[in-house]
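Q: What does the assembly look like in three dimensions?
Context provided by user:
Components: two
Sequences:
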Amino acid sequence: MNRYFFYLVFVNMVANVVASVPKILISHRTEGAIVSMIISFFLGLVFCYLCTRFFNLFPGKGLPDLTKKYLPRWLSFTMIFVTSFTWYIAGLITLVTFSFLLKRFLTPDMPLTWITATFLAFLSYGILMKSKSVLFTIETVLLFCLPFIFVITLKAYTAPELKLDFIKESLMYINHYPSFPAVAASIYLLLGGFNLVIFNRLFKREQRINWKNMLFIGFIGGGTFVTTFFIPIGMLGFDAVEHVVYPWITTSDTLRLEFFIVERVLYIFLLLYLAISFLSVLIHWHVTLELLKSILWFKKMTLYKHNLTPYLFIVLFWLGGLKSVTNLTEYQLIQFSSYFLNYLLCSFAVMFGLFWMIKRRAKV
Amino acid sequence: MKISVHRLGRPFTATVLALSLMIQSGCGFKDIDKRIFVLSVGIDHTDNEEKPYKIILKLAVPSGSLKQSGTEYTYLTKESESIASAIRLLKTQVDKEIDFGHAKVIVLGKEILHHDLTEVLDIFVRRRDIQRISWVAVGKPNAESVLKAEPSSEMAGSHALFNLFDQNGVESSYIVTTFLFDLRRRMLETGIDPILPVLSASKDKKKIIVNSSILLAKNKDPLKLNPKETKIYNLLANNVQRTDLTVKRDDLQYTVSIDTAKTSFKIITNPKQKPVIKMDISMEGIIEESNQGMNINALKTFSKQASEEANKDITALLSKLQENEVDPLGFGVRYKATRLHSKDTDKEWLRLYPNMSFDVNVKVSIMSTGIIE
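A: Here is the predicted structure of the complete assembly.
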């Protein structure tokens, strides 16, 4: 597979921290989080594989191009609209969570709307770029971030304060039935491949995902699962982790880089996640915009030969972002994230139905 | 020459963007010369029931040049009904913004330990600007005297309290270090109890001694560990690699300097036998001091003597912990971590711990008698 495909997958894995995934998993730690994680690990890999295989059949075609060609118009419109909405919410959750984090830790004196507006200003520029430029941005930013992610993860695993007994204690809850919210939350890590709905347009050459690719994704994904769930428990304590609002942010504050420029890993971590969540929102909203563009295009809205439709969508993105950032509380955000992740898992069942229909009609 | 409006678009946008920078009013950011940094925070208990907390802040006074000013600190104290309100009131005593970003030591007065500690420490774990990697200690006779002590060896820009706990300065097997996040997890977790180092300030405020520690079991009075017990605790908790052992046999007395030490333990519960905590401690070291000439052929005997000596001390400490039902080493967590969870696990452990017997195995290997025999 193309290396850009892996970037899409990895961004979701790394960005799970700003999508409340650790919080949801940890709140289910006595109610079958581990079994849920194992289930969603395999389920996620299957999803990733099926989705990629489907798009491999149609090189250079995004989902909107396929629905237009093979499905009735009303169905195509509804499906693409719902999909774009899903992707929009996915980006929105990351945006709002990270704005809250910035407000809480980095710039407490800055009004929340300003923080979000600054974020949105850069994002607007990013999502209006060509899909190809978006992929290049992802590659550059991710390559800059990976060393830091690696160092912080290594630091976490080698910290003397990491108490293995707490981690083992959480393993002793393996005899509990899995819970749906936990499965839904953890599967988010492996859903990055679905961004192919738009980015497949760029993968024009014929290619096939093979078992080596899947093994690679599974290996990294498994590592991410373990790190996301067990490190906060090991550092913060099995019972004590429950009342922490952002488990990973607090965990990063328990690490020390004694001889680095900044001793508190928290700040490095936040800056790192500034980049990662930017990427995550960028991908999701770029997909949203492209999907919307494919179904809604106002031919008459032009100014100096520029069509203004994308800008209209951007205005809507801004309104949605600013509105939710000012109206949500932290508690509601986690609650809604959980609902959204539940919905996401169900919606992919529908998505596969769609794939199957397209495949049957296209006869490939 | 006629320029079309269309072509002016880009320069116009660029100009507007550039000009918009001028209306940026800043975002409430305060410059470093408008801030004053808190180095350590002390909390004491007052006898006044309405205002039970006394807050002491040690602040670093910013100075232009290190050479001229030397070390300069200033202190703020306030009594109040809550810590947050005290800090708000303290803000009115200085002309700068009080910044907690560098507060790395929290000293709790000895008296406040009888209070509910979760209540006292709540603000520190809740506030974003307090580091979770700050050290917590107990101040004797009170937090104020510890903070106000200025050891003669203290230099400008290097706070003595930081050096005590940071492993860069002094390294000693008598010092217990407890990070704030570690304290919190020990307080909330069942099966492991908090331990805090005790800082005692001398009367002339020229010295701070840290060699003992305090155990805070849940719902029990604090239990003091003397320097020797603190040293053994550090050994058992794998906190230190370097420690020492003094062995006394008849006239012979010698001290072994240990440079590698490792402890591991297991909890063995058989239905038919008495539950046992099996502890293995291995140490390696050389002889550092002796009041007689040491025979190099007898190193094995010395090792054996040292092992027996250490065994006695360790068993004594473990029994003391057990009698008082405190568990700083996390036996309870280990128990829960090795048995599949059921809803009685916690209760089972509470029932088991007082009846546990200890099987301590110490293996000291003395490798050399030093430079002379």
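Follow-up: The radius of gyration of chain A is 20 Å.
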